[in-house]
Write a structure and sequence with these properties.
Largest sheet of chain A: 9 strands, antiparallel
Shape of chain B: elongated
Distance between the termini of chain B: 98 Å
Number of helices of chain A: 8
Largest sheet of chain B: 5 strands, antiparallel
Strand content of chain A: 35-45%
Strand order of the largest sheet of chain B: 2-1-5-4-3
Structural class of chain A: alpha+beta
Strand content of chain B: 15-25%
Radius of gyration of chain B: 47 Å
Order of helices and strands of chain B: HHEEHHEEEHHEHEEHEEHHHEE
Number of helices of chain B: 11
Number of strands of chain B: 12
Shape of chain A: globular
Oligomer: heterodimer
Number of strands of chain A: 29
Chain lengths: 380, 414
């Protein structure tokens, strides 16, 4: 595997590549960009034109991760030349399916073929129930196929997210790349670092990913109380207090959920994944040290083994909530990850509205929120 | 240099081809980072403050609920509950305790429980049945138990007092009623036993004199018709005597059972004796009478006289109900426990009669009763005797073809 990276900025356009010389070989391009940058028709088209043989997949972000830097308003592109692995891309529109489960199933069917080893999925971050999407995909592929990825972002605005395959990029899309062959190694890690605090509350009224009541009182009122002066920045500011959700008595299977939107009239909150009625919900809070510890833990889980030949690529999907809380200090978590993964690993990624990877306790592929989730690809 | 400042410097140089520093950009990002830091601190402080408030409220609610629940139990439970201090003085009493001790909580408070209940000391984990010491002359019977606990670090005790006065009264009534019933049964048996005895004495005279007349022991001067009457008197007397004997046996058993003189008995030998005793009667009807018994003794722990009576009763029934030329077999077995089976080729027992066969004075259908004289007590006595030995008796019968009666006795412990 050889990897080159390019950065687009408004002032300079696509800068010259850094990293390995690809000599015209290119199999796959990942790009992650600010919504305003990717809103310009030429940015992705120019990139694709530079590497005509490559499959292209990407999405809008809440911040770009490029090497050790966290940027806003840019596009980070990573061009991968795979020597022993075949790749395929596919996409579906969520609006064409009854629900996210069916869309996920349709997407995975397009890529299910002999030798499928891993799927990396990027989904619209606002119109898709990520939990359902992951369940749909997992329902049609061999359980050994690793599914990782994330939900596209839109800064802290939660207005419109887009996902692209090839030269086009559009809202409501779900795209995935499939990796085929037995010489690809996929490593993954996922950790949050948020700490649950305060009372455990019963989810007394909810429907799928819409939460109405905690302990019989409107959930939105509770969030507003805790947010104080930040309440006028909802829904984005709700990410400062993620909700930890687990079935009663099964704390180990807990998932962390974040808010995508709020409904002032219903006093309800829509989360990026399911918040089942009867489950336990508990607020979480973060601080600098604990979040950086979380990123460090995810990196240790995902660090590639010694069998890697050539370079590796690490795709960091980290939650927008972490960036909202830490501001500029968020760069520390990327630096920490880079230090653990080492110089041979090229780093790209983005701040997302949801992360997808296996759960560290259950092993089941899940939608996570508020985590740093890392997928490392290398060839042996 | 802090890594954040390093990054801020790097960002302030980015996009400047000459590597110079964009000072305005640097100052802006440094200022922003101070504000961000402040904001994170405020958020955390606020969260901590609110959480503390929520947890205190939840704590108060849980405490109130727990107190309310305990109070409801304390008020409503049908058992007296008293809180005692370490020395046994009453701190509080619930309404049931007030009722048991016939005194309000204000009068109970401060008193040593041992002044009110007959208990030696506060033995935990043992229930004591005792009496209250009357506060106003009315004592109650109670069960008392103790459970230690701590309240605000102070050792305390709960005394649980259950009023068992009514239950004890009911128990006493039951005992009296049972004794009365037993006494009534005993007097009935006493009466029967003495009556039987009183009846036999004159009957012996009647039988003796009837025999003298019938057999013309005093010469032939008696008219033949008187001799015939005397024979009738004798036959009826004999029947009456056997009836009285049976009643005597039965009442003896009902009285509480004859004292069994248990010894080691060979069931085989005992049955052989019984068969020999019945051989004459059987020969009169030309019956084929057989004994099947193992060579080795079949030992049982039994009263030999009672067991012989069982064997004789079964054999005489078999002989009585088997038509001439028939067969009666006595089979003694040791395998699977000592067993005696008497099998005949007699008239059998109908299923309807089988249902009542062990009832006193039941004699089968009237036809059978007419043609086969007897008291109807034989099988009843037999079964009672078998049961006194801890055994059981089973009947099988095929009407017109025969009956088989099996007596199983407990094995003798080796």
């Amino acid at each position: 595997m050889r990897v080159a990276q390019r950065l687009w900025t408004e002032r300079d356009g696509w800068a010259p590549p850094t990293g390995a010389k690809l000599n015209g070989d290119s199999s796959l391009i990942f790009y992650f960009g600010a919504p305003e940058a990717l809103g310009r028709a030429d940015v992705v088209q120019d990139l694709a034109a530079l590497y005509p043989s490559a499959k292209v997949i990407g999405c809008t972000t809440g911040g770009e991760i490029h090497g050790e830097d966290v940027l806003d308003g840019s596009v980070s592109a990573t061009v991968v030349a795979l020597d022993h692995t075949r790749v395929e891309t596919a996409d579906v529109m969520v609006t064409e399916w009854a629900n996210a489960f069916d869309a996920g199933r349709a997407l995975a069917r397009k890529l299910a073929a002999p030798g499928l080893r891993s799927l990396f999925v990027l989904s619209d971050g606002l119109q898709v129930n990520g939990s359902e999407l992951v369940r749909g995909m997992a329902s049609v592929v061999d359980p050994r196929v690793l599914i990782t990825g994330g939900l596209a972002g839109d800064g802290a605005r939660f207005g419109k997210t887009s996902v692209g395959v090839g030269k086009s990029i559009r809202p409501g899309a779900i795209a995935a790349v499939g990796f085929y062959g037995d010489r690809l190694d996929v490593f993954h890690g996922s950790a949050g670092g948020w700490d649950a605090f305060g009372p455990s509350r019963e989810i007394t009224r909810s429907k799928n990913n819409v939460l109405y009541e905690l302990d019989g009182a409107p959930a939105l009122d509770l969030y507003k109380r805790y947010l104080g002066e930040e309440a006028d920045k909802l829904p984005g500011s709700a990410l400062l207090f993620p909700l930890r959700v687990y079935p009663p008595g099964q704390e180990k299977a807990a998932l962390v959920r974040t808010v995508l939107s709020v409904d002032e009239k219903e006093r309800s909150m829509t989360f990026a994944g399911d918040v089942p009625q009867g489950h336990v919900g508990q607020l979480m809070k973060g601080n600098f040290d604990r979040l950086v510890d979380g990123a460090s833990l995810a990196a240790s889980q995902a660090a590639p083994g010694p069998a890697a030949e050539g370079s590796s690529i690490a795709i960091l999907v980290s939650c927008i909530g972490r960036k909202l809380l830490l501001g500029q200090r968020i760069g520390e978590e990327v630096e920490t990850v880079a230090n653990i993964l080492g110089e041979d690993t090229s780093i790209t990624g983005f701040y997302s509205y949801g992360e997808i990877s296996p759960h560290s306790a259950t092993g089941m592929c899940e939608l996570h929120n508020q985590t740093m989730t890392i997928t490392v690809l290398s060839e042996n | 240099m802090p890594s954040l400042l390093q990054r801020q410097l790097r960002a302030a140089k980015r996009g400047r081809p000459d590597g110079s520093l964009d000072l305005d950009a640097l100052l802006a990002s440094v200022e922003a980072s101070y504000l961000e830091f402040e904001r994170e601190r405020r958020l955390n402080d606020r969260a901590g403050q609110l959480m503390e408030e929520e947890i205190m409220a939840a704590n108060a609610r849980i405490r109130a609920e727990a107190t309310e629940t305990v109070a409801a139990v304390f008020r409503g439970v049908g058992e007296g509950i008293l809180q005692l201090d370490e020395s046994g003085r009453i701190i509080s009493a619930n309404p049931e305790a007030e009722r048991i001790f016939r005194a309000g909580e204000d009068r109970l408070r401060g008193r040593d429980l041992r002044e009110l209940v007959n208990i030696g000391d506060f033995t935990v984990a043992r229930m004591v049945e005792t009496q209250t010491v009357a506060v106003d002359g009315v004592a109650r019977e109670v069960e008392v138990s103790f459970a230690p606990y701590r309240s605000n670090g102070q050792p305390r005790m709960l005394a649980l007092v259950r009023d068992i006065t009514e239950r004890k009264a009911r128990e006493r009534d039951l005992i009296v009623a049972r004794e009365a019933a037993e006494n009534a049964n005993l007097s009935k048996s006493h009466f029967l036993a003495s009556m039987s005895h009183e009846l036999r004495t004159p009957l012996n005279a009647i039988l003796g004199f009837a025999e003298v007349i019938r057999d013309r022991h005093l010469g032939d001067g008696v008219s033949p018709i008187y001799a015939e009457y005397a024979d009738g008197i004798h036959a009826s007397g004999k029947h009456l005597l056997s009836l009285i004997d049976d009643i005597l046996d039965l009442s003896k058993i009902e009285y509480g059972g004859p004292a069994l003189n248990t010894e080691t008995v060979d069931l085989g030998a005992l049955t052989r004796d019984a068969v020999e005793m019945m051989r004459g009667v059987a020969a009169n009807k030309n019956l084929d009478m057989r004994l099947v018994a193992p060579g080795a003794p079949v030992t049982v722990a039994a009263d030999a006289r009672a067991l012989r009576q069982v064997a004789l009763n079964l054999l005489s029934n078999a002989v009585k109900f088997t038509p001439p030329e028939g067969r009666v077999e006595a089979i003694v077995e040791a395998d699977g426990g000592p067993k005696l089976t008497v099998r005949d080729t007699g008239i059998g027992i109908t299923p309807e009669d089988m249902a009542h066969i062990f009832e006193p004075f039941h004699r089968g259908n009237s036809q059978v009763a007419r043609t086969h004289p007897g008291t109807g007590l034989g099988l009843v006595i037999t079964r009672k005797l078998v049961e006194l030995h801890g055994g059981k008796i089973e009947l099988e019968s095929d009407v017109g073809h025969g009956t088989s009666v099996t007596v199983s006795l407990p094995k003798v412990a080796a």
